[in-house]
Amino acid sequence: MNKVSIALGSILAGLVPGLALAHTGIGHAAGFAQGFAHPPVGLDHVLAMVLVGVLAFQMGGRARWLLPAGFLAAMAAGGLAGMAGLALPLVEAGIALSVVVLGLAVATRLRPPTVLALGLVGLFAVFHGHAHGAEMLAEGGAAAYAAGFLLATALLHGAGLALGAVVGRAGTMALRGAGAAAAVAGVAILAGLI
Fold first, then answer.
1. Is 29 helix (H, G, I), strand (E, B) or coil?
2. Does 19 map to a domain?
3. What per-residue confidence (pLDDT) applies to 27?
4. Fewer CB atoms inside 10 Å of the end CB: C or N, the chain?
5. Which residues have CB under 8 Å from 83's CB, separation 6+?
6. 75-114 pLDDT, tens per residue?
7. Radius of gyration of the chain from Cα atoms?
8. In this predicted model, what pLDDT tens digit does every residue of 107-165 receive, in sequence order?
9. Does a structural domain hold residue 74?
10. Following DSSP, what letter does each residue of 31-99 receive, concatenated?
């Protein structure tokens, strides 16, 4: 096993204890700090958001800014729907599936047309946003809470872009392996194993 794989595995293992805190239920969060803290506490959110950045890096060109920006816009829409109490079926399954699909896209170095990738990333972002928005307290602070989870998400996308650049220099096999490992984690999340 190379040093990059060990480092990535260690980071992922360190995130596992926070899994139980990822989705605490409707109406438990308010304010910027809690909004900012929501994405990083769930392995499902972290993996998907970092993978968006890695995929954007792999696709190159306009995709490097379009995929993260599209994810943020669709996530904001999903967050508004969640805050408004609008029902969205299979939110947790959609989030887990995002990890599987994005992981496989990175593992296979998939380069779909940018518009197709943007549509898929946007669809998944609605599920992530809905989960964040549904956590919002009804009393208020929605703008600050949304700003927090959007900023945290943007930083995770940036981490994915940086990971793509740094690990990509070590060779594509390391990135492909990380994508495959993320896809396996997504299957485990979908199955309720983690």
1. strand
2. no
3. 47
4. N
5. 133, 134, 136, 142, 146
6. 999 999 998 899 999 999 999 999 999 999 999 999 999 9
7. 16
8. 999 999 999 999 999 999 999 999 988 887 655 678 888 899 999 999 999 999 999 99
9. yes
10. HHHHHHHHHHH-HHHHHHHHHHHHHHHHH-TTHHHHHHHHHHHHHHHHHHHHHTT---TTHHHHHHHHH
pTM (predicted TM-score): 0.84
Mean pLDDT of all residues belonging to the chain: 85
Rounded-to-integer distance, Cα 192 and Cα 194, Å: 6
Residue 97 lies in domain: 27-190
On whether residue 5 sits in a domain, the answer given is no
Mean pLDDT of 13-21: 41
Report the pLDDT value the prediction gives residue 138, as an integer from 0 to 100.
57
- 34-55 b/e (C-beta count within 10 Å ≥ 16 → b): bbbbbbbbbbbbbbbbbbbbbb
What are the structure tokens assigned to 105, written together? 């896209």
CA-CA distance, 11 to 67, in Å (whole number)? 24
**Spatial separation of the C-alpha atoms in residues 49 and 154, rounded to whole Å:** 8
Tally of domains in the chain: 1
State how far the Cα of 105 lies from the Cα of 98, in Å rounded to an integer. Answer: 10
Q: Considering the domain boundaries, does residue 8 fall inside one?
A: no
